[in-house]
Design goal:
This protein has about 400 residues and is of the alpha/beta class. Helix content is about 20%, strand content about 40%.
Length: about 400
């Protein structure tokens, strides 16, 4: 699809409402008008901003990572690959599109440009984001870390990310997104496309911390080829105005696998509409969608999960657990299973309820107050242990979740 074709399709969808989520007036925001400047070193990032990025798993010391990427609003970017790391490319999207003509073939291949008004606006306005590629056979042991920060009021951060794990490669990414608490009426539009080639492994872990007046509309999708593995983990533990995201993974090659994990801690009067879809399109594909939701105060959480079996010899499982902490909060679990081929084995389990009285009584009998006991139960409920992740990355996830919970509880 040519650039002109993309623009035409985007124009046709400028007013197309999304299938899910609160509708947003996109014309009330300020959009970027020029490409961002470059940040030469992490040392050029202020101490306040370094503290903020730490809260979403980004390590300014860069001691245990293979590369770093930071983008502030649409204005400044740092892309830093450690010199000793071969087989890895990390570039701003604007630079990558100029450097690699073939990258156009991946643009809007996994996510349709005309999916809704948010994808359309992402294409029609100036955007940046990151391009990350592990070359064929490269085993990138330490994670790549990225962070997208929004600091401007009444503005849109518009990003389009493309991540490619070439044949036989291994790549792990931890991605943080954050806004300072004082930022008002901001909007994050984030398109992310993942391409996992034959026998490749890609894990993508997101830790988000938004302000109470931020709307968030990520649009992401992955295409996984023969014997490829894609693991996505998402943690959102802060209040915000609203979020709606429904990542889709297509398992198109025999033996492909994908696991999607999410944990959401709902607070204030925030609205969360979060889900995931697995499409099993080839024999021996398998995966799972696992979500954990906690609703406090007046928050509303919709947890969606779709499994679609389009081929025989496929297997997938959906698990949705919700914990209600407030009588004013709401959790809705929306599981959907669709089998279109003989031999597609799909299953789901969903539970939503309050903290058990027996659990509270037991912990309080051990000397804890009711508040302390509830907090302990919540911390255990939102533990995110992802099989197959490097220990350093799992430690980063644990630390980021702990820091977020300490700030929100």
């Amino acid at each position: 699809m040519t650039s002109d074709d993309m623009k035409k399709r985007a124009e046709s969808a400028k007013e197309k409402q999304a299938q899910y989520g609160v509708d947003i007036d996109l014309d009330k925001y300020e959009y970027a008008s020029s490409e961002p400047s470059e940040i030469e070193s992490i040392d050029d990032v202020s101490s306040a901003d370094q503290s903020l990025v730490k809260e979403v798993g980004f390590d300014p010391s860069q001691e245990k990572v293979s590369a770093s990427f930071i983008q502030f609003d649409n204005e400044s970017i740092l892309a830093d690959v450690l010199l000793s790391q071969e087989g890895l490319e990390v570039l701003p999207m604007s630079q990558a599109l100029k450097q690699f003509d073939w990258l156009q073939d991946y643009l809007w291949k996994a996510v349709p440009v005309d999916a809704d008004k948010y994808t359309a606006r992402s294409e029609l306005e100036t955007y940046n984001g990151y391009f990350i590629r592990a070359k064929a056979g490269a085993k990138i042991g330490m994670p790549v870390q990225s962070c997208l920060i929004m600091k401007k009021n009444q503005a849109v951060q518009n990003v389009h990310n493309i991540i490619i794990a070439e044949e036989g490669s291994e790549l792990h990414i931890i991605s943080g997104c954050a806004t300072p608490s004082e930022v008002e009426n901001s909007l994050h539009l984030g398109v992310s496309e993942f391409y996992v080639k034959k026998n490749a492994q890609l894990s993508f872990t997101m830790v988000h911390r938004w302000s109470e007046k931020t709307d968030v509309r990520p649009r992401s999708a992955a295409i996984v080829e023969e014997n490829g593995t894609y693991i996505s983990s998402y943690a959102l533990l802060s209040p915000l105005k609203s979020i709606q995201t429904f990542p889709k993974v297509r398992l198109v090659g025999s033996g492909a696998k994908s696991d999607l994990y999410s944990i959401v801690y709902g607070s204030k009067d925030s609205k969360y509409d979060i889900g995931g879809l697995l499409s099993l399109e080839a024999p021996r594909t398998n995966g799972k969608v696992i979500s954990r939701s906690i609703a406090t105060e007046s928050s509303e959480i919709i947890a969606r999960g779709d499994l679609v079996g389009l081929s025989g010899q496929t297997k997938a499982r959906l698990e949705c657990d919700g914990l209600l902490i407030s009588d004013s909060a709401v959790i809705r679990a929306v599981p959907m299973l669709e089998a279109r081929a003989e031999g597609a084995e799909l299953s789901h389990e969903a539970t939503v309820g309050k903290v058990g009285a027996e659990q509270l009584s037991y912990l309080m009998s051990r000397g804890l107050t009711e508040e302390e006991a509830t907090s302990l139960i919540i911390r255990g409920f939102v533990k995110l242990k992802v099989p197959g992740l490097p220990s350093a990355l799992q430690s980063s996830i644990d630390a980021a979740i702990k820091m977020s919970l300490e700030g929100g509880m």
